[in-house]
Amino acid sequence: MHRAWFVAAVAFVTIIGAAAFASLPGLLIEPLHEEFDWSRGTIGFAVSVNLALYGLTAPFAAALMDRFGIRRVVALALLVISGGTVATLWMTASWQLVLFWGVLVGLGSGSMALAFAATVTNRWFTARRGLVTGILTAAGASGQLVFLPLLSWLVVHHGWRPAAVTVSLAALVVAPFVWLLLRDHPADVGLAPYGGTYAEKPAPAPGAARRAVTVLFKAARTGPFWLLAGTFAICGASTNGLVKTHFVPAAHDHGMPVTAAAGLLAVVGVFDVIGTIASGWFTDRFEARRLLAVYYALRGISLMFLPMLLAPSVHPPMVFFIIFYGLDWVATVPPTIALCREHYGEDSAIVFGWVLASHQVGAALVAFLGGLARDAFGSYDLVWYASGALCAMAALMAMVIRRRPAALTA
């Protein structure tokens, strides 16, 4: 077996361990509201800061990986996540939630973002890139699957603090594996990337922050960048910002137990693994922009039906929604990365970092606005319908992205 698959396996386990922090925000809204009497809008603001920094950090983290290496950046990020999460145990004011969970965990998780998966894939694989991208993207869903039922049980039976400690320990345990087992480049072990030819390891790229900004300005002069950023912003709004943050409290509003709602999100994680790996396989074989259009259209249709499906108990139509939505959860990632690679070549990981930043800004806005809408209207219905309409817009935007001529791609 080629060493690249071993590196991909280490990256997969790393993302699973780090994914624990992503499972917690939706479970914290009600406990923090009850204990500290903070409004859902205030808690949603802390989550939105976390999501925004998650995205805005990604392109700089990709550039830092070029400068200092993958394992150094990722190991440090895991330690920051662990420290920020455990610090919430002693908070007494809402600004501390914004600082610890929003800023520290946001910065750490941004360095563990999908730009990490894109960097590993670009360096270690020439063949099977779409499939590997799908597998690493699915790792986040697998982490959600592993931790969400446990965290929801801890929150219900023991409070939110033991759940926060569990998240902190998960990130802390993974850090040594990254440091000891991950390698930055195939040339470090005298190999060629999988399916490619041997190349010397490039010299560390100085000026990581400057390079990230330079790549942004260069990409921003092209139409595909804005279309990819726009569609991915809607992707973030309709997944992390909406469903991951607000599905559990929305289901609880209709009388569903928190553990049951969290269990449904875990099922989303199961089917997301299937859907994302399948999407990577499709991306190796079909036109990426058409795949994106189909994914966004189907997601929008499913979200339009959700307000009619929420009930005190889990029934077959809700199970169908969870399966259908789960298959589409982050299936958009492999074709989006493929389009970045097609249009931006060696800078594609950093460009994808900026596209991911738009994803998280969209998620942050909806995490905040969704909480405000719930406070103002007493229901999440308007947010579900608006998100469905945005997905229809994203499907149209995806079809507008032009194919790059093969000669330019090469």
TrEMBL record:
Give the UniProt keywords, A-Z: Membrane, Transmembrane, Transmembrane helix
Entry-linked InterPro entries: MFS, MFS_dom, MFS_trans_sf, Proton-linked_MCT
**Identification of the protein by name:** MFS transporter
Q: Which residues form the Major facilitator superfamily (MFS) profile domain?
A: 6-406
- Which membrane topology describes this protein? Multi-pass membrane protein
Cellular compartments annotated: Cell membrane
Any stretches that span the bilayer, and where are they? 38-61, 73-93, 99-119, 131-156, 162-182, 225-243, 263-282, 294-312, 318-339, 351-370, 382-401
State the source organism's domain of life: Bacteria
